[in-house]
Amino acid sequence: MAMNPQGRPSRPIHAVDPGAYEETFSGSKGLDQAEPLIFERGDFDNSGVDLPEPKGLETRTGGLERTARIGLPGLSEPETMRHYVRLSRKNYAIDLGLYPLGSCTMKHNPRLNEKLARLPGFIDIHPLQPQSTVQGAIELVGELARWLMTLTNTPCVAMSPKAGAHGELCGMMAIRAALDARGETRRRRVLVPESAHGTNPATAVQCGFTTDEIPADATGRVDMEAFKAKLGEDVAAIMLTNPNTCGLFERDIREIADLIHEAGGYFYCDGANFNAIVGRVRPGDLGIDAMHINLHKTFSTPHGGGGPGSGPTVFSEALAPFAPVPYVKKDGDTWSLVEHEAEAKADGNDPFGRMVAFHGQMGMFTRALSYMMSHGSDGLRQAAEDAVLNANYILARCREEMTPAFEGTCMHEALFDDRFLKDTGVSTLDFAKAMIDEGYHPMTMYFPLVVHGAMLIEPTETESKAGLDRFCDTLIQLARSAKAGETERFTQAPRFAPARRLDETRAARQPVLTHAAE
């Protein structure tokens, strides 16, 4: 994939002077308490728990019991509570304010979903229980699968993938299995648009394919002439994100599907942005053969920090036989998981194998189905419409001071480039750091790579107009400040964050993790 030639500037030299910031003697600032690492403040000789030595205990460790200290700091209960409460205040969260990260739907997670996910019949089951004892849980997985197949108009879904990239892997492994079953092992080239998610080419290579990049046209969409020129007998598939990472709907998607199928390849669609079209567009109608769905983006669930996630993958009729085991099956009133390939083949399928030890993420399944059933089909459609409306509202309000990357309306993400910062001495990174001082998490920066100095904003459907106005007013004021020559406000930002601006390159190569090491 093409790389951004601009790079990301680290902290300017003149911002290193600690005198540029107002410090307090304690290190605390108002209600924000200074808090060292637990290993720095804890007492290694004492513990907050006082337990007597057990009497008459016979060890069963075979001589492997610990003889040295465990090496963990001891804190009292109030000290432990304060430590984690203080740390929590340093986190930005969707429950605290608008989370504008583009390409990752950071929406409000209804507490109803959390409550249902904690019901005893779901939270305390074990994956090795006999299937007869978890009929309700298996039925829930089957019902969620039915919703996903209905929303996408596809006949099959693999529920076991545990993340978006895992779902991509599932889809591409099914495509390879289908090609091998056809005896077309020469088809190993995968077409990947510039506007695709970055995991797409990595997944293709992981499955033994080579990748061939398709450039974007002036509108930020697939260049159709370039796409047609790359079709050939060795093409296995195209991996297309729709809406793409520029926040735009691929208008030629039906033609793309028809052309790739005529060439003998398959159409993999990255469903990470399904939140923009769910209830409005059924991807199966667009000709897709496989698409993963991020339950933790489109259908609620805690998001971030690397998980937890869930990425079920739907399949067209052409790829359905190659979906992995396990899958849910209903026979009369009995629900079961088809666990073994031999059993699947008895059903007329030819699965490419098994991806995980157990069947996906039960907590994710429960939250997602709760979200679907509480919204209903009309509510899901409205959520998608509101997400697109909110993004276009930001685009319209900010376009006079900031520069939209492309003309026209967008889908669920508003994308700006850095032309409005030209000759100001302020970069995209500086602008984002200044947002922290204003109480906002920065938007996605420098991505997608096809846009110079990109700023990708996704408000989702869960933000009110008042919240959007406050956010837009802040962006507009920052843009005007940069144009007015108030460069130091940006190059020294953030001034009010618990951790001030770092020399990011040096911090990555020479990390200082404790106060004592400074």
Automatic annotation (TrEMBL):
Q: Which UniProt keywords apply?
A: Oxidoreductase, Pyridoxal phosphate
Q: Output the Gene Ontology terms for molecular function.
A: glycine binding; glycine dehydrogenase (decarboxylating) activity; pyridoxal phosphate binding
Top EC category = oxidoreductase
Domain Aminotransferase class V: residue ranges: 190-304
Q: What is one term from the GO cellular component aspect held by the record? A: glycine cleavage complex
Region of interest called Disordered, as start-end residue ranges on this chain: 1-27, 487-518
Q: Which domain of life is it from?
A: Bacteria
Q: Locate the Glycine dehydrogenase C-terminal domain: which residues?
A: 383-488
One GO biological-process annotation of the entry reads:
glycine decarboxylation via glycine cleavage system
Looking up Pfam families in the UniProt record yields: Aminotran_5 (PF00266), GcvP2_C (PF21478)
The Enzyme Commission number assigned here is: 1.4.4.2
Q: Which Gene3D superfamilies match?
A: 6.20.440.10, Aspartate Aminotransferase, domain 1 (3.90.1150.10), Type I PLP-dependent aspartate aminotransferase-like (Major domain) (3.40.640.10)
What SUPFAM superfamilies does the entry give? PLP-dependent transferases
Catalysed reaction(s)? N(6)-[(R)-lipoyl]-L-lysyl-[glycine-cleavage complex H protein] + glycine + H(+) = N(6)-[(R)-S(8)-aminomethyldihydrolipoyl]-L-lysyl-[glycine-cleavage complex H protein] + CO2
Role summary: The glycine cleavage system catalyzes the degradation of glycine. The P protein binds the alpha-amino group of glycine through its pyridoxal phosphate cofactor; CO(2) is released and the remaining methylamine moiety is then transferred to the lipoamide cofactor of the H protein.
What is the protein's name according to its record?
glycine dehydrogenase (aminomethyl-transferring)
Organism whose genome encodes this protein: Marinicauda algicola
